[in-house]
Amino acid sequence: MALFVLAGDWTRRRWFVMPSATSLTHGSGRTSAQRVAVTLAVLAVLFVGTRLPVPGLDPQALSGQQFDAWSGSGQRLSVLALGVMPWFNALIVGELVWLFIPAVRRWRSDNGAAYERSVMFLAVIFAAVQAYGVAVALDQFDGLVLLPGDGFVWPAAITLFAASMLSMLMANLITREGIGSGFWLVFLSQSLFGLPATATFLLAGVRTGAYSAATLLVTPLVTIAAAVLAVALLRQRTVLGLKDHSAVVWPPLLGAVLAGWVLAFVSMRVVSADGTSTFVQAGHPVFEAIIAGLIVLLSWRYGALAGYASLGFKSGVLLAGIAVLPDLAFASLGLPPFISGSTLIIAVTVLFSFMQVWQTAEAADTGPGARGGPDTQSL
């Protein structure tokens, strides 16, 4: 009950600005440089938080190579292991019901504040459940916890939950006082913080002979090519007067989530040419094909709701290629994905919109009666 009261108080006081429209905002009354400084400071604090392990874990186990604090596994053992993921999960549910249930679309249009409260209630519930689940999983890992049992699980769960709430508050601080959508910047940073470890792993593989230097060159080439296509799509939408880029960000994310649900509930096997049977899993061509099909469908749906179904379908085909082809290229070469296609689309979209906001803010700062420019800029 206390969790519901807490979520309601947050939304009532407007401590959280919902990223349902994936808006990029910047705090009024500050110069562009000050807003950027606030944004970088918050991201720096969160970066430090990803290096702080959950209390109760064995320091000797954490010092081992398997749980290197600078690796992806180390980040998953930090107090910010959840980050804004509970909020993201709640938004996923909200977007899906909005897309396919007309009554919810009408209710959300007429009761925006009630929708925000509902999403935050769900985010708090997800945070509590996920925090407890992570704590239990850590407790069951041999040699990782100093004193296994309830004496570790409950303090760890409370710590993870509190840190997740802090991540959400910090994201909202960026939205209010910094520049850009705090939610999307923090969400994206959770993936980008692990890139140095991935790059180090790939370079170590070249030194040991696991990967060839020529093969490794595929990583930047594929990433750059996908980024160029994403920028071209965003520029086309801008030329057509479509300033809200939600229909670019959400289809790849929802497609990956829905494909994961399909894989979780439906066990699929594929028989290869030599007669061997393998389960379909993440990275398999069949799984990626499911994601691509869902992205096209979802993009068409977003376009249809906005009155441009044909453009939505065409955009969906391009988005599916950007989201899926890099993953297939990395998998075929035996390389770990440096950055997933969906994450790359978010990164390019956030950066593209960030530059638009920056230009607007700079013009407002230097113009007559400057107060930091308009309140929002669609992503």
Keywords:
two-stranded antiparallel sheet, 379 residues, disordered N terminus, mainly alpha, Preprotein translocase SecY subunit
Report on this model:
Strand 2 (269-271) and strand 3 (277-279) form a beta hairpin. The chain has helices at 2-12, 32-49, 59-62, 72-76, 85-100, 102-110, 112-139, 150-177, 182-192, 195-208, 213-216, 218-239, 246-265, 285-306, 309-332, 341-366, and strands at 23-25, 269-271, 277-279, 376-378. The longest helix has 28 residues, at 112-139. It folds into two domains: 1-193, SecY subunit domain (Preprotein translocase SecY subunit); 195-363, no CATH class. The strands form two sheets. A two-stranded antiparallel ribbon has the order 1-4. It is mainly α and 379 residues long. Helix 2 (32-49) packs antiparallel against helix 8 (150-177) and helix 12 runs antiparallel to helix 15 (309-332).
